[in-house]
Each structure stands twice: as C-alpha cells, then as structure tokens.
Design goal:
The protein is an all-alpha fold and about 200 residues long. Helix content is about 75%, strand content about 0%. Helix 1 crosses helix 4 and helix 5 packs antiparallel against helix 7. The longest helix is centred in the middle third of the chain and has 27 residues.
Length: about 200
C-alpha cells in the first residue's frame, strides 16, 4: 500500500469510531482532523468533502461489521454451532469489537431520515445478514441437523432483530443482562428443533 493510500485509510479508520459514537451529523471535520492527526489540506486531498469521507467511512464500518460476524461463525462446522457462535459473540453489548456499539443499528437510526444513500447501504447489509442466517439454518434443516418444522427465515429474522434491539437496550441500561437472557431463550428455542 502506497503512503497516500495508507494516509487515506488511516483517516477512514480514525473517523469510524467517531461516526459510530457521535453520528455523521455530530462528528465535525475538526474532530476527524484531531483524531487522524492530519491537516485539513491533507484530508481534502483524499476526500472531496465530508459526504465523500462519510461514504467511505460507512463502507468501512459496514464491512467491519460483516467481517466480525463472519469471523466468529467461521470456526464452527455445524449450522447450530455457527448460530450459537454468533449469539455468543453478542453476549456483552457494552464491550463490542467495534467502538460505539453496532454500526449497522447506529447508522440505520441516523440515516433513516437524513442520509438516503447510507440508509440504502445499511438496508442491503441487513438483508444480506438475514439471508446468511436463513441459509445457515436452512442448510441445517436440509442436512438433518434441525427438524423440518423450523422456519429458517422466520427464526433468522426474529433472532437478528431481537439481538439488535437487545444491543440498544443493554447500552442504554448499561447492563448486559437483557442480552444474556435473550440469548439463552434463543438457544433454547433453536435447541428444541435440534435432531442431534
């Protein structure tokens, strides 16, 4: 990676936690300059404006979110193992792999009314994750790991939206207990369909 590319990537990486914690609107160019330790001219030599930087940073945050989910599930060899690995990785919303909480949820809330392009990107990621969880569960059904009565798409949807909602609740209440109760319930429900 050339020096210019490293500098650009560094700016994005330093902007990411700011955008995730303070929001796109709440993060100023000065905040980013201070975090990235670059001058304004340097920043604008890599990005046309704040919207351009925001677009790159949103892509970075969403890719990081997807990467975190894929990483935790990749070691498991069964459908149940992959879903449980995902749930286990969500146990402590107060100490997440990405500073500031779940970027998917944070960006969705901010983008809902203010940033149509970001809203579209976040929506695509949500759909992709739901489809991925559905495919994992369906593969478990097809391979005889789960009973055919498990509705893969419905369970995947319920699991994903419940985890996102519990993440917000835990962060507001400063307690991981609601998430731990939710995960226990989801695991018990999925276990009820297990044939192994």
């Amino acid at each position: 990676m050339r020096k210019a590319e490293r500098t650009k990537q560094n700016i994005i990486e330093q902007a990411a936690p700011l955008f995730n914690q303070k929001g796109i609107a709440g993060t100023t160019i000065d905040d980013i300059l201070q975090a990235a330790k670059v001058a304004k001219g340097c920043l604008y030599s890599h990005f046309e404006n704040k919207d351009d930087l925001s677009a790159h940073t949103v892509d970075f945050l969403l890719a990081k979110s997807i990467g975190c989910v894929q990483d935790v599930m990749s070691a498991a060899t069964t459908a149940k193992g992959r879903i449980f690995a995902y749930l286990d990785s969500c146990q402590d919303p107060l100490d997440m792999a990405i500073v500031g909480g779940c970027p998917i949820f944070n960006l969705a809330v901010e983008a809902d009314d203010n940033h149509p392009a970001v809203k579209q990107k976040v929506g695509a990621v949500m759909q992709a994750l739901h489809a991925n969880f559905t495919a994992i569960l369906q593969a478990g059904i097809d391979q005889g790991e789960f009973a055919a009565t498990l509705k893969a798409e419905d369970f995947a949807f319920k699991m994903y939206v419940a985890v996102e909602g519990a993440t917000v609740m835990c962060r507001v209440l400063a307690s991981s207990q609601p998430m731990r109760r939710l995960i226990k319930t989801l695991k018990e429900e999925l276990d009820a369909y297990s044939l192994g």
